[in-house]
Design brief:
Number of helices: 16
Strand content: 5-15%
Structural class: alpha/beta
Number of strands: 12
Helix content: 25-40%
Radius of gyration: 22 Å
Distance between the termini: 54 Å
Shape: globular
């Protein structure tokens, strides 16, 4: 993951873990990867990969703050060093700086754009504000509409926090309504250190034993499990094969015994390094702390840093440092301890290193087990996993009437009259629970 603008951003999202990284570089730092360093990175990154298609991921901060000419230079350098390989570019943005010119550029050069949006207005604006504390939803939606206008391929990335975790169905259906077909849901779990000097980093690394308190925006473990279940229940009834949720795809890959493409659910990690604007390379985007710095590309080869003993040990520790409670868990094959950055609590026997989200993840795995088993069986027999939608609808019809409850008030506003009723009756909402709510 390349961060050519470092932590510089035009927004001031409350839960952002990256804004404070400017403290690592001092007030005089110029937060822009210069062209010489950019060329060295692009050349080494391409040379290091023995695959026909190379994907660059441009992140921040807000990479659009670098301006369009910067990315014209990126394309020029990629063309010079492509080595006969196809090059793809992914740019993650908050969307507020996009205009017609940007979107024409993205379309012309086939950029995939990741839009950071947490849900409908009341959800998105809860934490995603600008430097003046003003809401950003309208500006993000304008940027998203321009991407659609210019036929730019986009995905959505939503941070699951303490607030939107209460609105799984509303969040999911809103994202679908924007045209998003690929939705990443990233749980936020952060600890804030106490009694630190202003110039020190306030957020703690997952392995840091420094005393600290859970950040107030962190999602509660049970709520995260219920959020995933809420999204999954709608997805498995209506959208398998047409909408893609990486969390579900990744877990299904583990369920079938195949290798997942997402490090969070992989047995080991260490392949998702991050390079900063000044050439510093870190073990991971979530581990930009001095103790996880691998070196600098100005004087060390990128491939040497990524395959250094330090980085290989970091990757293996995801598996090797699991507490015994995880090793004995029936869902270890699906979870693999999730992300090490979230392993901040103790097991029931007092052993450190348990994932904070464990309770919610177990709740989710138990809930989806029948559907994952079914989809795994369909894949094994070379049938489409989307057949699970028929199975899911039949299961809902067979539920005892006592379990068929009207949807929560927070979800009703997003259900259309002709939608299948979420209670599982098999009827349309207008002929089922909508009338029960009114009465």
């Amino acid at each position: 993951m390349a961060k050519p603008v470092g932590p510089v951003c035009n927004l001031n999202c409350s839960y952002c873990y990256y804004l404070e990284k400017d403290k690592l570089y001092g007030k005089t730092s110029r937060f822009k990867m210069d062209e010489k360093l950019l060329e060295k990175f692009i050349s080494e990154y391409i040379a290091a990969q023995n695959v026909p298609v190379i994907q660059f991921i441009w992140h921040g901060g807000e990479p659009a703050m670098l301006g369009m000419d910067y990315f014209r230079t990126v394309l020029k350098l990629q063309a010079q060093h492509h080595r006969g390989k196809s090059i793809e570019n992914v740019l993650q943005t908050n969307g507020t700086l996009l205009n017609d010119e940007w979107c024409r550029f993205f379309a012309a050069h086939h950029f995939l754009i990741g839009i950071s949006i947490d849900g409908p207005e009341h959800i998105h604006d809860r934490y995603r504000t600008d430097k003046a504390g003003k809401p950003t939803f309208a500006r993000v939606m304008k940027g998203l509409e321009l991407l659609i206008k210019h036929k730019v391929e986009f995905n959505t990335m939503s941070v699951v926090n303490d607030y939107n975790a209460q609105y799984p169905l509303e969040t999911y259906r809103f994202l679908k309504s924007t045209g998003s077909k690929y939705m990443q849901f990233s749980p936020v779990v952060e600890r804030i250190a106490g009694h630190l000097l202003p110039e020190a980093l306030h957020l703690l690394a997952g392995s840091d034993a420094t005393p600290g308190s859970l950040a107030p925006w962190s999602v509660k473990a049970p709520d995260y499990g219920k959020f995933l279940c809420g999204v999954f229940d709608d997805w498995v009834l209506n959208d398998v094969g047409s909408c893609f949720v990486p969390t579900f795809d990744s877990i299904l890959a583990n369920w079938t015994g195949n290798m997942t493409s997402i490090c969070v659910h992989a047995e080991t990690c260490g392949h998702a390094g991050a390079i900063e604007h000044n050439g510093d390379v870190y073990a991971c985007d979530h581990y930009v702390f001095p103790e996880y710095r691998l070196g600098n590309i100005r004087n060390e080869a990128l491939v040497a840093m990524m395959y250094s003993p330090q980085q290989l040990r970091f990757g293996r520790d995801k598996r090797d440092a699991l507490p015994q409670q995880c090793k004995n868990c029936e869902f270890l094959f699906a979870c693999n301890g999730e992300c090490p950055k979230n392993r901040i609590i103790q097991t029931t026997t007092g052993e450190p290193g348990l994932n904070y989200l464990c309770e919610g993840l177990q709740y989710f795995f138990r809930h989806v087990s029948p559907y994952m088993d079914f989809m795994a069986e369909e894949l094994a027999n070379e049938r489409p996993p989307s057949n699970v939608m028929t199975m899911a609808r039949e299961r809902l019809k067979q539920q005892p009437v006592s379990k068929k409850q009207p949807p929560p008030a927070q979800q009703r506003s997003t259900i259309r009259p002709n939608d299948a009723c979420p209670c599982g009756s098999g009827k349309k909402y207008k002929n089922c629970c909508r009338n029960k709510v009114k009465s």
